[in-house]
Amino acid sequence: ETPVVWNSLNNGYLTTQFYTCAIDHATSSNIVIAGAQDNGTWFINSSNPTDPWVHPRGGDGSYCAIADNASSYYFSIQNGKMMRAKVNASGVIDSFARIDPIGGENYLFINPYTLDPNNNNIMYLAGGRNLWRNDNLAGIPYLQNWDTISTNWIKLNDTTASSAVRISAVAVSKTPANRVYYGTSLRKVYRLDNANSAT
What we know:
Layout: E1 18-23, E2 31-36, E3 41-45, E4 54-57, E5 64-66, E6 73-76, E7 82-87, E8 93-98, E9 113-116, E10 119-127, E11 130-134, E12 153-156, E13 167-172, E14 180-184, E15 189-192
Antiparallel strand pairs: 1-2, 2-3, 3-4, 5-6, 6-7, 7-8, 9-10, 10-11, 11-12, 13-14, 14-15
């Protein structure tokens, strides 16, 4: 019997679907990170389009962010699980901590969050019908484990009018500062002023 010989027809074609990507807005670095459907978060530190990407984080790659001057990296996977990490220039995680808030619930599968562009020590996170704020990301210790460290989170109660709604998009204004816009699954857009101190 003659064995079957298979020939690949991919011809070098490789693809993935990125949900989100992030750069360091404070520098002209070549570093890009991106969360990929079913394929974790990817990292590259090159402007050469044929250089390979590295894979610092597994899971379903989701939202990601780089704090100014690459002082911290933020990765997330499905259902709102988030990590703060130190990453070296080769894309290797040197230290990390899981940071999503204890008590957070009703996350989207690919759940949004954003750093404040005026103060990268502040983060806003969608958590079901509630917006969460972390006032001091730098105060989260790198404990090198996947246990949640719920440090410095404030739940902004009743940030939407309906218990059946989920916050599905979050953005922070650079000018004016401390203004957050967020959209919901019921097609409503809200504005929160003085978001850095609001409760």
